[in-house]
């Protein structure tokens, strides 16, 4: 549905050159939800704005629904854009119009007659669960309600693709969940393809089929959610995955933690359990093979895209030699093991 081919975007402001996008190729298959994740300044907004040519790439090609947007005249582009809806972090509602009038705006611009507009607005308000807010002004709506109205407005002309530019970044966790569920419903029930950008892996984990990871204008990793979560290739991707877990070292352990081995202390390790290691009994193996005790301090497992993965904090208690051998054994099994210190 969306094909970005070798997109580059260079900004040149008074001789100050920024390479916001470098050779980015990404496809969003019809009916899927694809999430682009990256830190601030990675180029996410620039990328999503290239899809509807709000930002014109310096080079590369943009196909939406089979049409090369870079080759269209302004008039043809305006038509093609009707297939592409967009929602934003700060909703972009007109404060002088009621919720219903905001939703009606694209229909007015599309010269739909008043009776049909009214019917469609009511339908859309019902769809986003805000029938009773039709005559409210945006100032009287909560953040989540404003985003629902913005979503209804973007659905008014039946787009084929929805672009979501950090649509949940200004919302609290519970409201974020409800907006993500709404996006998932839009995708499933209205068969609208979604490309979203975010800096939160939780968003991606919840609703995306595929993930692309961006860093400094480059797309450094892409794949389906299960692949990425089970076999992250880059350190940045691993960090994003880790951010979905809330595992902290207990205060008591923090107080005792030393950076180097001391007599009577044992390694405190963080284990990333993903991919092949998840279903193998390698933790019981190290206990048997190396005669150590594996004292689990905290652990969290999750299930994404049919794949189990997780993080564990544990203390390995044995002789220094056996502890080291156990850690080496896990590393040789391709488990990501980090020795946090000694407790
Ligand atoms: N209109 C512009 N003129 C000049 N530089 C720009 C412009 N828009 C973006 N940039 C630069 O391009 C780079 C990528 O910015 P972009 O906004 O796409 O990143 P982002 O990943 O969306 O970041 P954030 O999450 O903070 O919004 C940054 O270095 C930014 O300063």
From TrEMBL:
Cited Pfam families: ABC_tran, NIL
Any GO molecular function: ATP binding
Keyword Membrane belongs to the record: yes
InterPro entries in alphabetical order: AAA+_ATPase, ABC_MetN_proteobac, ABC_transporter-like_ATP-bd, ABC_transporter-like_CS, ACT-like_dom_sf, MetN_ABC, MetN_ABC_transporter-like, NIL_domain
Keyword set includes Membrane: yes
Domain of life: Bacteria
GO cellular component terms, semicolon-separated: Gram-negative-bacterium-type cell wall; plasma membrane
Domain ABC transporter: from-to ranges: 2-241
The entry's keywords: Amino-acid transport, ATP-binding, Cell inner membrane, Cell membrane, Membrane, Nucleotide-binding, Translocase, Transport
Known function: Part of the ABC transporter FtsEX involved in cellular division. Important for assembly or stability of the septal ring.
Similarity field: Belongs to the ABC transporter superfamily.
Protein name: Cell division ATP-binding protein FtsE
Lineage: Bacteria, Pseudomonadati, Bacteroidota, Flavobacteriia, Flavobacteriales
């Amino acid at each position: 549905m969306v094909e970005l081919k070798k997109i580059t975007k260079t900004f040149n402001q008074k001789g100050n050159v920024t390479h916001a996008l470098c050779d980015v190729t990404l496809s969003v298959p019809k009916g899927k939800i694809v999430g682009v994740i990256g830190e601030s300044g990675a180029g996410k907004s620039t990328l999503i704005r290239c899809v509807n040519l709000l930002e014109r790439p310096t080079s590369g090609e943009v196909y939406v629904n089979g049409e090369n947007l870079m080759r269209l005249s302004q008039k043809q582009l305006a038509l093609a854009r009707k297939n592409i809806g967009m929602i934003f972090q700060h909703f972009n509602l007109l404060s002088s119009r009621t919720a219903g009038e905001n939703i009606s705006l694209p229909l007015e611009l599309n010269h739909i007659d008043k009776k049909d507009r009214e019917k469609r607005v009511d339908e859309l308000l019902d769809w986003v669960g805000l029938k009773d807010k039709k005559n409210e002004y945006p100032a009287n709506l909560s953040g989540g309600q404003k985003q629902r109205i913005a979503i209804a407005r973007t659905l008014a002309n039946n787009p084929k693709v929805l672009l979501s530019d950090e649509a949940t970044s200004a919302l609290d966790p519970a409201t974020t969940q409800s907006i993500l569920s709404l996006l998932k419903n839009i995708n499933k029930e209205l068969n609208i393809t979604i490309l979203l950008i975010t800096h939160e892996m939780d968003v991606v984990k919840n609703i995306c089929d595929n993930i692309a990871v961006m860093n400094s204008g480059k797309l450094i990793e892409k794949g389906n959610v299960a692949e990425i979560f089970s076999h992250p290739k880059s350190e940045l991707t691993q960090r994003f995955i880790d951010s979905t877990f809330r595992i902290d070292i207990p205060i008591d352990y923090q107080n005792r933690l030393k950076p180097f081995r001391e007599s009577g202390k044992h390694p405190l390790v963080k284990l990333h359990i993903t991919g092949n290691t998840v279903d193998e009994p390698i933790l019981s193996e190290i206990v048997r093979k190396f005669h150590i005790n594996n004292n689990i301090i905290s652990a969290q497992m999750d299930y994404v895209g049919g794949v189990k993965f997780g993080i564990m904090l544990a203390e390995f208690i044995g002789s220094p030699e056996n502890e080291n051998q156990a850690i080496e054994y896990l590393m040789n099994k391709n488990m990501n093991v980090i020795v946090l210190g000694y407790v």
